[in-house]
Write a structure and sequence with these properties.
The chain is α/β, with parallel strands linked by helices. Helix content is about 50%, strand content about 20%. It has a six-stranded mixed β-sheet, sandwiched between helices.
Length: about 150
């Protein structure tokens, strides 16, 4: 019983630790961006409403991520894509890789960690988008604790 209490206590402290350090810097119907100033990282939460997002709205959200990453001198990004439902077409993937990767590298982003969905098509779409990135180390996790540990090291 003591072990179970300690596990719950540690999970609670982990949640408090990340909650205290994070500040919301952008919120829309598709995306919430939290900033962890101590670690110079963003935590991006894509929402299920992305199922109805247009290509132009996607591009706008990516533009906001880049603008804020530059403003806050971000070094790493955690992308929580568990609820992400926007289908990434080959054209959007090409645009993303051409526009975003080089800009993030210039800003100083060196690591990205992706929390992936259990939905096969959503997961595949997200992984295909990030697999073509050169110059940024990408990792995939299914839980935020291990993802944050990897990103913070």
């Amino acid at each position: 019983m003591k072990l179970i209490e300690n596990i719950h206590k540690n999970q609670y402290l982990l949640i408090i630790k990340y909650t205290i350090m994070e500040k919301v810097v952008h919120q829309s119907k598709y995306l919430t961006i939290n900033h962890d100033d101590l670690n110079k990282i963003f935590i991006n939460y894509w929402l299920s409403s992305t199922a109805n997002m247009t290509n132009e709205e996607f591009k706008k959200e990516i533009g906001i991520i880049i603008e804020l990453a530059e403003q806050f001198s971000i070094r790493g990004i955690l992308v929580n894509s568990i609820d992400y439902m926007y289908p990434i077409t080959p054209e959007i993937q090409d645009w993303y890789n051409e526009f975003t990767t080089s800009t993030l590298i210039k800003i100083g982003v060196s690591k990205m960690v992706i929390i992936v969905s259990t939905d096969f098509l959503s997961r595949l779409s997200v992984e295909q988008m990030f697999d073509d990135q050169k110059g940024i180390t990408i990792a995939y996790y299914s839980d935020i604790k291990n993802a944050m540990t990897w990103l913070s090291n």
